[in-house]
Amino acid sequence: MVNRFSLRRFEVIGAREPTSWQGGIAVPVIDDVPLYIRINEQLMPGMPAGAIAPPQREWLGEPYVIPGDQDTRATVIEGGCHVSWCCGVHAAITIDEQVVTWSDFVVGPCEEIDLGSFTFDRTEYEAAIANVMDVPTIAWRING
Question: For a disulfide at 111, which of 64, 74, 97, 107, Cβ 3.0-4.6 Å?
Answer without folding.
Answer: 107
